[in-house]
Amino acid sequence: MINDLKKDAEDRMNKSLDSLEHGFAKVRTGRAHPSILNGVMVPYYGSDVPLNQVANIGVEDSRTLLVQPFERTMVNAIDKAIRESDLGLNPVTADAIRVPMAALTEETRKDMLKVARNEAENAKVAIRNIRRDVLGDIKSLLKDKEISEDDERRAGDDIQKITDKYVAEVDKRLAAKEADLMKV
């Protein structure tokens, strides 16, 4: 029973790390990367769909994304969606859409660092909340006399070790993102 709780905690903490990576993908560095446009939604036949479902997104060079719509009629809608996203990008439209990435200024880099640190802090909070939930479940098992106090103490220590491991992983990924952002 305790092993199931530990496994569940690890699975949920892994999902927090996945969410962190998804959040980091939105934080742009100076290089072009297709994941920057992941959050862009495009109106398509009455509903909003992710950009990658109506176009191919590729890297033309280190500072330019190339967006090739599956349908020619979608060019203007995609252009508008990219402009209206909060990414601060200005696409250039022809047959395909080129999205040049401006070089990051020192101030922009610092703003991006703040966003990255905020994403990391949110991941840590999520991990700690998972720890709290699992420890509550373990205390319930103790209260219901399904486990002994020694089992509860051991399980609590194990959950803390798992939590520490995932918090350290968040810190490691944040350090890598910070190094990537500060690279000129």
Automatic annotation (TrEMBL):
<comment type="function">
    <text>Responsible for the release of ribosomes from messenger RNA at the termination of protein biosynthesis. May increase the efficiency of translation by recycling ribosomes from one round of translation to another.</text>
</comment>
<dbReference type="InterPro" id="IPR023584">
    <property type="entry name" value="Ribosome_recyc_fac_dom"/>
</dbReference>
<dbReference type="GO" id="GO:0043023">
    <property type="term" value="F:ribosomal large subunit binding"/>
</dbReference>
<keyword id="KW-0963">Cytoplasm</keyword>
<feature type="domain" description="Ribosome recycling factor">
    <location>
        <begin position="21"/>
        <end position="182"/>
    </location>
</feature>
<dbReference type="Pfam" id="PF01765">
    <property type="entry name" value="RRF"/>
</dbReference>
<dbReference type="InterPro" id="IPR036191">
    <property type="entry name" value="RRF_sf"/>
</dbReference>
<comment type="similarity">
    <text>Belongs to the RRF family.</text>
</comment>
<keyword id="KW-0648">Protein biosynthesis</keyword>
<protein>
    <recommendedName>
        <fullName>Ribosome-recycling factor</fullName>
    </recommendedName>
</protein>
<dbReference type="InterPro" id="IPR002661">
    <property type="entry name" value="Ribosome_recyc_fac"/>
</dbReference>
<dbReference type="GO" id="GO:0005829">
    <property type="term" value="C:cytosol"/>
</dbReference>
<dbReference type="GO" id="GO:0002184">
    <property type="term" value="P:cytoplasmic translational termination"/>
</dbReference>
